[in-house]
Amino acid sequence: MDGGTVRVGLVGCGGVAGWHAGNLGGIAGVEIAGLADPNDESVRRIKAAVPALAGVPAFGSAEELYAAVALDAVEINTPHTLHHGQVLEALDHGLHVLCEKPMACSPEDARAIADRAALGDRLMTVSYQRRVDPAYSYLRRVVASGELGEIQTASVTVGQNWKSLTAGSWRQDPSLSGGGMLMDSGSHLVEALLALTGQPVAAVAATVDDAGSPVDINATALVRFAGGAQGQITVIGDLATVWIERVLVSGTGGVLVYETDPQHPWRTGRVQHYRDGTVIQPLGLPAPFPSMDAAWIAAIRGTAENPAPAEIGVAVADLTDAIYRAARTGQVVEPTAAVLAD
Ligand SMILES: NC(=O)c1ccc[n+]([C@@H]2O[C@H](COP(=O)([O-])OP(=O)(O)OC[C@H]3O[C@@H](n4cnc5c(N)ncnc54)[C@H](O)[C@@H]3O)[C@@H](O)[C@H]2O)c1
After folding, report:
1. Strand locations in 106-228 (E)
2. How large a percentage of the chain has pLDDT more than 90?
3. Strand, helix or coil for residue 59
4. Domain Gfo/Idh/MocA-like oxidoreductase N-terminal spans what residues (predicted)?
5. Which of 97, 102, 268, 280 is buried most, with the most CB atoms less than 10 Å from its CB?
6. What is the tens place of the pLDDT at every residue in 128-157?
7. Beta bridge partners of 11
8. Under DSSP, is residue 342 helix (H, G, I), strand (E, B) or coil?
9. Mean pLDDT score of the chain, rounded to an integer?
10. Going by C-beta distance under 8 Å and a sequence separation of 6 or more, which residues neighbour residue 127?
11. How far is Cα 310 from Cα 114, in angstroms, rounded to an integer?
């Protein structure tokens, strides 16, 4: 790295890339050195929204970007089915990668990324920002500390007006999205469910509904974890309001409840922690990092752990795939991870 500066490229310059660019702009010693997007309008919009990008060179593809600009790292912000090829390409160019969720749309593609990342010394991180969210960090910390005792159940719900919001976009084109709301926003809650039990998945039953769309809109799954915990995930893609997210984790030593406020859907919600008949509502929760980008850059610099390594992307791809298979077959299914790891 040149004098400590981390030179980052953005592949995909649409909606989420603007958010990432803003986050990166707030980190000392980070320079956005190049952009890649086949859509000139996306480049025009991100440059208009983030004035610091005005003079940054833009290219029609990642390949052209990598050929023209010396980079240390890249953020991949493209439609889902492109992630697998683009992450492998970036790792082959010796770049640290922050890939938007989902890392890949199948367990096989996810496994290939994790195996490739394990061969090198570049960081592969999935942009699951709940890994750095103050409330989710509190929930994970309490579970990991053992304070909740043996985890009995974990249930997560996410609801959004996703169906109307994404109508006509790549998100409802399976060849680019790899799936619907479960593959998109649902992916964050699949990650949360896995993190909050800390156990591998043993079996899954599910029902999925496309609500007249080309992709899944609503999904509910029951999960048996290898350590004995039971899990449940509900994904509502045609919610009659903007956004809601709920978590309930019960253990032999307490209960954690988390809920966002639909009136303020983008804010971190409220945690309630029940133990010994008392309820603690932690306030002023510390944020481990102000953004996923900041956590990733710290990990690149060796001052923090990788906040969401590729193996998390593999576990999410595996459970997501099991939910789709269980719904399609009407059977209780096992995840494919163990088979792929052989
Ligand atoms: N972490 C989060 O909370 C969050 C929020 C929104 C989106 N996302 C994720 O970010 C990714 C992008 O979503 P978005 O909302 O920004 O979508 P978007 O449609 O706004 O932007 C996608 C961009 O990718 C570009 N693109 C398409 N093919 C490309 C290619 N081959 N090379 C380079 N660029 C290409 C498109 O032209 C477009 O500008 C998705 O994985 C999505 O799930 C994550």
Report:
1. 124-126, 151-160, 201-209, 218-225
2. 89
3. strand
4. 6-126
5. 102
6. 999 999 999 999 999 999 999 999 999 999
7. 36, 76
8. coil
9. 95
10. 20, 75, 98, 99, 100, 101, 292, 308
11. 5
User: Which two tokens mark 250?
Assistant: 């019960």
Q: What is the pLDDT of residue 337?
A: 66
The answer, as to whether pTM is greater than 0.90, is: yes
* The two structure tokens encoding residue 116: 């490739």
Q: Are 189 and 157 in contact (CB under 8 A)?
A: yes
Q: How far is the CA of 12 from the centre of ligand 1 (A)?
A: 6
For ligand 1, whether the C-beta of 242 sits within 6 Å is no
Instruction: For residue 259, give the nearest of 142, 161, 155 by alpha carbon.
Output: 155
293 touches ligand 1 (CB under 6 Å): no
Torsions phi, psi of 310, nearest 5? -55, -30
Q: How far is the CA of 82 from the centre of ligand 1 (A)?
A: 10
For the record, the structure tokens of 47 come out as: 């440059």
Count CB atoms within 10 A of the CB of residue 30.
20
